[in-house]
Amino acid sequence: MKINKEDITVFVIDDEYVIRDSLTLLIEGTGLTVKSFDSAISFLDQLNTSIPACIVGDIRMPYMDGLELQEQLVIKKCDMPIIFMSGHADISISATAFRAGAVDFIEKPFEPKFLLQRLNECVEKIILDWPETQEKNRLNECYSHLTPREKEVFLLTVNNHSNKQAAKKLGISNRTVDVHRAHTMEKMQADSLNTLIIMAVKMGLL
Amino acid sequence: MKINKEDITVFVIDDEYVIRDSLTLLIEGTGLTVKSFDSAISFLDQLNTSIPACIVGDIRMPYMDGLELQEQLVIKKCDMPIIFMSGHADISISATAFRAGAVDFIEKPFEPKFLLQRLNECVEKIILDWPETQEKNRLNECYSHLTPREKEVFLLTVNNHSNKQAAKKLGISNRTVDVHRAHTMEKMQADSLNTLIIMAVKMGLL
DNA sequence: TAAAGTATTCGCATAATTACCTAGGTATGA
DNA sequence: TCATACCTAGGTAATTATGCGAATACTTTA
User: Fold this and answer.
1) What percentage of chain A carries pLDDT values higher than 90?
2) I want to staple B94 with a disulfide (CB 3.0 to 4.6 A). Which of A46, A148, B105, B143 is the partner?
3) Whether residue B123 is found in the same domain as residue B152
4) Which nucleotides of D are covered by protein (CB under 7 A)?
5) In this predicted model, what pLDDT tens digit does every residue of A75-109 receive, in sequence order?
6) pLDDT at A165 (0 to 100)
7) Is there a domain that residue B34 lies in?
8) Closest-approach residue (CA) in chain A for B98
């Protein structure tokens, strides 16, 4: 499922309303959707991790700074790319941000064009990665609907156990394992064992 | 195949011999092996991409600077991690380096302890990733020994074709596909179809 | 040039796996 | 208590995989 620039939301987070407003105008001018927040906390409150989006935020903010925001996103398993801005440039801080996964770091003040160019690179990457991201989301959604026993069977299956071996390991009949696996494949919408294994790999289970 | 700190080489690249020598002493003191170079060019000349190593280098050097070195490594498909140092700190340059894949960026002058700590993080990651890196190398080696037909069968197999389907697609009997696949599995040292698929994923074929 | 080796191709028979139909026992919650 | 979901299992038919044997063509080497 491909997406376009128009489908991407840019979350602008800055405690200064002047910056928020001008950034919003600037970015909206390129066709992107913008939602702005005056703090990382209010942003996190409404966070929906399942839409294609990225963040443009100040690294230095009251209550919760950019690095703390990053930590929260990691905790929420949200890999939304972040572009940081900072008026108090410091290599040490920028290095920390990058090591924590920031995709870019821009010094204030900056040329509008400069930000737009960086933002565009980021957006292009989101568009490119989105199909895979979606697939992962779908797989995890399917996986969450498996019963505990089905998950056990699933893991044994993709870890190279024939149903007979799995049955022995679980102490149940091989027929029962078949049933669980059949259910698993149905729920995961896998048309074959191979597909199931590939799914497991994509979900990081292998 | 696990490795230890002692198995890792740190390539120190700096045009100032004072820095090279003091860094060498400093880093060797932690048990790591150090090889130093006065330019990126002399480093690239002797580069062996198949050993566990990382680079500690100045970003600003005559002839070839750190960013160009990074480009060269990408061209050589060498993913050796780089820690940059710079005495002329500039967020813009550090951001460029990070976006190009640098793992760290340190401002000169720095506390020896500071560098060692960052270097250690880097080394720990290398140790952690090494088994997987080795496995990838092994798989690619095995894969290169497959005959053209075997590669075809391999790709069809891991892409969810039963041997019957693959046979139809290739216009040959299903028995022949079986033979090719058996050979493939032997050459790849895969004990099952599952393993073969996992290998394909690891090699980035899926 | 002849021999050796490798790659590619199959058939047949057997073993293993999977699909499908059916169905009972056990929790958990409305 | 009834409904729902989960775990369990046997038997048979169909599909698939595997082991053994062997022919043809092309490349390399002695």
Assistant:
1) 73
2) B105
3) no
4) 5-11, 15-22
5) 998 999 999 999 887 899 999 999 999 999 999 99
6) 86
7) yes
8) A98
pLDDT, tens digit, 9 for 90 and up, residues B102-156:
999 999 999 999 999 999 999 999 999 999 999 998 999 899 999 998 999 999 9
B15 Cα to chain A: minimum distance (Å): 22
Strand D and B168 CB separated by under 7 Å: no
Nearest CA in chain A to B192: A160
Same domain, yes or no: B152 and B175: yes
Place of tokens 């120190």: B12
Å between CA of A147 and C1' of D6: 8
Residue span of the structural domain in which B115 resides = 5-130
Q: What is the helix (H) or strand (E) element at residue A128, kind and residue range?
A: helix A112-144
From the CA of A160, how many Å to the nearest CA of chain B? 6
User: What 8-state DSSP symbol labels residue B21?
Assistant: H
Confidence of residue B43 (pLDDT cuts 50, 70, 90): very high
Cβ B160–A91 below 8 Å, yes or no?
no
φ and ψ at residue A88, rounded to 5 degrees: -115, 70
Query: Residue B109, class by beta-carbon neighbours within 10 Å (0-12 exposed, 13-18 middle, 19+ buried)?
Result: exposed
Contacts of B18 (CB under 8 A, 6+ apart): none
Least CB–CB distance from A198: residue in B103, B162, B197 = B197
Q: Do A94 and B89 touch (CB under 8 A)?
A: no
- List the CATH number of the domain containing B181: 1.10.10.10
Question: Which chain B residue's Cα is nearest to A158?
Answer: B194
Residue A154 Cα distances to A161, A175, B99, angstroms: 10, 15, 38
Spatial CA neighbour of B9 closest among B123, B133, B134: B123
- Tell me which DSSP letter residue A137 carries: H
- The pLDDT score that the predictor gives to residue A37 is 97
On whether residue A136 sits in a domain, the answer given is: no
C-alpha A105/C-alpha A119 separation (Å) is 11
Closest CA of chain A from B104, distance in Å: 6
CATH number at residue A10: 3.40.50.2300
Which H or E run includes A153?
A: helix A148-158
- Protein CA at A153 to nucleotide C1' at C7, angstroms: 40
Contact yes or no for B173/B167 (Cβ under 8 A):
yes
Point out the residue among B104, B162, B191 whose CB comes nearest to the CB of A95.
B104
